[in-house]
Amino acid sequence: MRTRLLLISHPATAAQRKGAFPADDPLDAHAIEEAAAFRVANADRLNADLALSSPAPCARETAHALGFAAHAEPALADADYGRWRGRRLLELADEEPDALATWTRDPSAAPHGGESFDALKLRVGGWLDAFEQRGNVIAVTHASVIRAALMHILQTPPATFARIEVPPLAIVELRHNERGWTWWPAPHRHTGLTTTDTTAPAAD
């Protein structure tokens, strides 16, 4: 039996819509409404033998809104943004412009004292390499984690980390067989709601 893994990014939180780094933010009413509309629009794809989610409230609440009692998976957690957690990008651009510029260009850098993108990619890649569940699996997680997963299976150079954008409530389909993991682009389905593109900061 082969594996079909759907990675789903949670809707934007209120903090993200203000351009702030994630800080274990819950979903607000608008985000829950978006998730509910997404569930209706993608009902035929949202079937799973197993549902997983990041331990973060926004991911767990998204999984619930999609109709899943998901198991928390630590490997699906967002990157650790250290002292930048909850801070607005515009504030950091004024206070730490050099550190922010380094972080946006160098995947090995973690000037905020947390986790670098290279470290996140290593964590997510290790989880994918050890993945043993078969059948249909849905995992609700963060844009940064999905970006890391794509880079791992496509074996792209580190510098491409800033060139992959994952919007809120995106689906990335991965499949695994004897040849390993492959990426299957999934068509976008309009939900009838307007979802703000809040992939900046470029981590979630």
Automatic annotation (TrEMBL):
**Alphabetized SUPFAM superfamilies for the sequence:** Phosphoglycerate mutase-like
Q: What UniProt keywords apply to this chain's record, in alphabetical order? A: Hydrolase
Superkingdom per UniProt: Bacteria
Q: Does the keyword Hydrolase apply?
A: yes
EC number(s) on file: 3.1.3.-
Any Pfam family: His_Phos_1
On whether rRNA processing is a keyword of this UniProt record, the answer is no
Q: What is this enzyme's class at the first EC digit?
A: hydrolase
GO MF, one example? hydrolase activity
Q: Which Gene3D superfamilies match?
A: Phosphoglycerate mutase-like (3.40.50.1240)
Per its record, how is this protein called by name?
Histidine phosphatase family protein
The scientific name of the source species is Paraburkholderia sabiae
Taxonomic classification, please? Bacteria, Pseudomonadati, Pseudomonadota, Betaproteobacteria, Burkholderiales
